[in-house]
């Protein structure tokens, strides 16, 4: 019987071998869903709220009216590609572009590439409607619109929907740390407040 070590060493010594093809051909029986029969939207709302995010369940029709009321004073970055209907209620004077000095804005409104019910995590790939990575790290207030169709059961399912060549940001609640004397401090390396609007 060949050990795993011997098999690997044998492949390395095979001239013309294609390790990438051999790796792709391996069969793995990973569990793809931990909660196949659970209401994903409810589970995601519960888990993301556990991280001290503020969760609002709204219809797409209500969103243009609800979103502006969630803004604080100041201007908000609205990245290119965000559906105009979602932000129709935000006055032009309250909007900032993606290239605005981020230290001068109150927050950002984005969409997401995926959301993970099991972990209460938002995933941004910084495509249309999500803006560059700095938008989600510098402003103090992050509002994220999450259509129910973007919510996956768990991490393996989310990964099948994502492009691994894109810059991915995983967000589980507002930025926080307990490094100093185990005292929770929010807003250390990202937004202090995270609001999630579930459509």
TrEMBL record:
Gene3D superfamilies: NagB/RpiA/CoA transferase-like. This is LUD domain-containing protein. Residues 68-199 form the LUD domain. PANTHER family: LACTATE UTILIZATION PROTEIN C.
């Amino acid at each position: 019987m060949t050990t795993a070590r011997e098999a690997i060493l044998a492949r390395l010594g095979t001239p013309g071998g294609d390790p990438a093809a051999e790796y792709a051909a391996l069969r793995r029986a990973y569990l793809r869903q931990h909660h196949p029969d659970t209401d994903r939207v409810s589970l995601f709302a519960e888990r993301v709220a556990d991280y001290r995010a503020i969760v609002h369940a709204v219809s797409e029709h209500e969103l243009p009216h609800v979103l502006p009321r969630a803004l604080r004073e100041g201007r908000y970055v609205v990245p290119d590609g965000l559906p105009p209907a979602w932000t129709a209620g935000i006055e032009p004077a309250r909007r900032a572009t993606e290239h605005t000095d981020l230290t001068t804005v109150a927050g950002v409104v984005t969409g997401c590439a995926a959301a993970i019910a099991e972990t209460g995590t938002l995933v941004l790939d910084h495509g249309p409607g999500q803006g560059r990575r700095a938008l989600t790290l510098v402003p103090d207030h992050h509002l994220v619109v999450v259509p129910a169709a973007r919510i996956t059961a768990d991490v393996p399912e989310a990964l099948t929907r994502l492009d691994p060549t894109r810059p991915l940001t995983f967000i589980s609640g507002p930025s926080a740390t307990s490094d100093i004397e185990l005292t929770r401090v929010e807003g250390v390396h990202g937004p202090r407040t995270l609001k999630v609007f579930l459509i």
